């Protein structure tokens, strides 16, 4: 009985002990659950905003959409730069289990070069996750078909269509239009500085040269975007919001396809440039530099062999001769100097000078020769320009002096960029005392002025400058800013480029303008005129001035013999002109390298240009 | 005295004949139903997976009812045998086990693959309780020592597989028996100090690289947001963005767009938190608390020490599962592969758990017969 009671007491004690432990356990359970609840309160109530934002950031992605680039047409609406669909083979590495085997499979289907594979694999390492990366661009139709048929067994492989630039006239407009190319790090930095980078999130290409570069902002357009919901693999589940891209503005140029083709045909194999513009507003009608090259090569990244061929070609096709070709203007600037002579009363219209065929400075026996052996005899300002008498201008130049020449010629735009709407432009050189001091640390000698007076030695000019200086003569001192773009238009608005004219050359006697214009008309229209032969049978009136620039100095008393000279040392042929003689609508400049005389080579090219201009009625309605 | 003992059965009415504890059953059914609702969303509305889970639930419920029919005395008789078989199987696994996911956990019996550690989840508490309950309580020191040994051997074998999470849970289930048996607080304090001294040894000599990485990631998940920290960051985003009332059923963007990893298994709690918010969390925790409370009540009302200890150990282990899973998913604890009990999608562990609840029901409903013995 006692034993049983002890046992009973033990049971009671055991139960008490167990129950107290159970109570402790229950308290621990409750307190740990409280900790969980407290933590939940922290996450779901106190930090709710924070996690809500992060959750949205997870699921919502903004996909940028590239705008369509604006089109470029000539003055009549003929397409010069258009957008064409191209197909590229693209891969999303994260969706491919074994990249190397997929590459091998693709290589069996279509040709994929080792270079393309290497480029691709390098990009895989650099790109963001879930971005598609191009393996091969510009697939042809057959390749698109082959890949499309096999897509089902190639997960992560897609054929993407997108628009890319195409220049249907190939090399005809290259130096005017330029081209677009892949955005590189320099472009990125420039865009960033201009705070335009966000607009390029979906763009792959940018204007690199010419009008494509100058009007990049207008042509590019405004990026659109889609706000999409994505899953953890980046796949788009649905579109939440969409803002369409706005296409870039279309640009109508003042260039004319027919005139441009004429320019190309007249130059043929010769190196040189032709620029034509409307003197009234600076609208450029023709802008051609020869030789040219196909800009389409650059759109998808030019191969290094093609690029080296262009870069190292002795004909230098990459140089834009129309605005970067630096030529001695030669006799084409004689009308300008004649104006200065008249304006300063250094010569009068009827002042006559004896031309024995050579010119000497006082205290010197160095003979500066005339291009015509034996000289022109008595010459006045008309015959000096018409027959391109060198002696008259040597004499005039010495009388004027470098300072007056330099200052006045600058007003015609020499030594300055014209401000045409491309960035590739040289200022060439209008020398002065200060320039020579800075350049050679030498004083200016009268002997420097003599060749300068016939547009040789240090004086250089670009074809666009020569055409513009002609426009200044026509406009009686008003200088237009040359421009190739005539009209910018978007879907519902269009804006004409306003001509910019500024007074540039001022004269005391307005009649002098007429005299100068008259000398140029006589150069074409009178029997002794250096351009008469070229324009003899023309059905229209025009004015002009030839020029022949020596590339190497000819020794004293030696005869210039083109055949005995290396081709690259032969004379440059120059011509500036305008038409018709009254109320001109076109001025132009022709520069042809190493082909001989201005009257024999350059003037006939001017003739063909004007023949086309009048027969086709370019610019006729204006 | 007899009247007192009979009364619970009378209250349970007809269910008593099937040895079912009604409150516990209702709690479990509420949990399972809520779990299925969450799972439907967490599986991305996969009907195939729902079907599989429902079949598993059916099997698990059948196992529970089946186990409940056996008396606690039966478990007591079989405890040692079950423990020995489990031990042999663990050794077999280490020798010829099947390697899956980098760990040797499975034993291929020919007709089915089987994780012996599941047996040990039941066998360790049963065996330790059998041993401790054979003496008067509180246990003497050398009894405790033997008890520790019975926990330690299977624990080390499972840790060697390696499955640190399960091995620690099994060690816990044995230690709970010792705690409930009345192990002195002084000893508990002493052991706690010993364990904390042992922690550095474990860090440097016992833990594998991936386990250390988990702990490091737990301490600062943002250091490796795309690597091992990704899981916990995404999980916290899911929970936090749920707010008070949640994004709505099937509307959780973190879950439905699969930013949440393991959404239907280990991280299902995050799905609940995102779609049902704090309200859903409170409801789930209330159900769990009810089940645990009922379990402890059953334990304290049990008639013999073996039943008390086994019941308490099972229900406390169940709580540890809940706490470790929720703690891990909400960033309180490092990531260890523990599913949310009876809610996560999964096989064997659910059957084992329901078998344990079967034991609890047996303890709760076999008192009269015990009294009559």
UniProtKB/TrEMBL annotation, chain B:
One of its GO terms (molecular function) is peptidoglycan glycosyltransferase activity. It catalyses: [GlcNAc-(1->4)-Mur2Ac(oyl-L-Ala-gamma-D-Glu-L-Lys-D-Ala-D-Ala)](n)-di-trans,octa-cis-undecaprenyl diphosphate + beta-D-GlcNAc-(1->4)-Mur2Ac(oyl-L-Ala-gamma-D-Glu-L-Lys-D-Ala-D-Ala)-di-trans,octa-cis-undecaprenyl diphosphate = [GlcNAc-(1->4)-Mur2Ac(oyl-L-Ala-gamma-D-Glu-L-Lys-D-Ala-D-Ala)](n+1)-di-trans,octa-cis-undecaprenyl diphosphate + di-trans,octa-cis-undecaprenyl diphosphate + H(+). Keywords: Cell inner membrane, Cell membrane, Cell shape, Cell wall biogenesis/degradation, Glycosyltransferase, Membrane, Peptidoglycan synthesis, Transferase, Transmembrane, Transmembrane helix. It is a multi-pass membrane protein. One of its GO terms (cellular component) is plasma membrane. Pathway: Cell wall biogenesis; peptidoglycan biosynthesis. GO terms for biological process: cell division; cell wall organization; peptidoglycan biosynthetic process; regulation of cell shape. It comes from the Bacteria. The chain crosses the membrane at residues 20-42, 54-72, 78-97, 141-158, 164-181, 188-206, 276-297, 309-336, 342-363. Coiled coil: none annotated. Its EC number is 2.4.99.28. InterPro entries: Cell_cycle_FtsW-rel_CS, FtsW/RodA, RodA/MrdB. It is an enzyme of class 2 (transferase). It is found in: Cell inner membrane; Membrane. Its main location: membrane. The keyword Cell inner membrane applies. HAMAP family: PGT_RodA. Belongs to the SEDS family. MrdB/RodA subfamily. Peptidoglycan polymerase that is essential for cell wall elongation. This is Peptidoglycan glycosyltransferase MrdB. It comes from Arsukibacterium ikkense.
